[in-house]
Amino acid sequence: MFRAFLKVNDACPACGEELHHHRADDFPAYLVIAIVGQILVPIVLAVETNIAPPVEVSMALWPSIALVMALCLLQPVKGAVIAIQWYGGMHGFDAAKTRRIAAAADAPVGTV
Fold first, then answer.
1. 3-class DSSP state for residue 51?
2. Nearest to residue 12, comparing CAs of 73, 93, 74, 72?
3. Do 37 and 83 touch, CB atoms closer than 8 A?
């Protein structure tokens, strides 16, 4: 689906579905911030309250973990946002949704 870290191919290499009209924009980044925050903040609070490491350790550890988590989650979350747009027929994917519905209606029972 991706030709670079966050650059989406114009079409799916497996099935040929057009992907160039997706509108993921900044939404994946907002989701990643929320996910990383929901996971990391309780851990930071627990560690800082119970263990209280030196400030230098905290200043090196927590931003590094947040950065790694964000970079690991950004591509899968962007792919999921594009998949939701494709499934919902949003932002130019309406023709793809119409084709899927028509194909499902024409398929014999029990094959879909």
1. coil
2. 93
3. no
Question: Residue 112: is its pLDDT beyond 60?
Answer: no
At 52, give phi and psi (nearest 5°). Answer: 50, 65
- Could you tell me if residue 52 is left (phi over 0), alpha (psi between -120 and 50 degrees) or otherwise beta? left
Rg (CA), the chain: 20
For the CA atoms of 75, 88, 96, 111, what is the dihedral angle to 10 degrees?
100
Tokens 């993921």: give the residue. 24
Whether the CB-CB separation of 95 and 65 falls below 8 Å is answered with: no
- Say how far apart CA 109 and CA 41 lie, in whole Å: 49
Using one digit for the tens of pLDDT, what is the confidence trace for 83-103? 999 889 888 888 888 888 888
What's the number of CA atoms in the CB half-sphere (13 Å) around residue 72? 8
Query: Cβ contacts of residue 74 below 8 Å, gap of 6+?
Result: 5, 6, 28, 29, 32
What is the SS3 assignment for 18?
strand
**pLDDT of 111:** 60
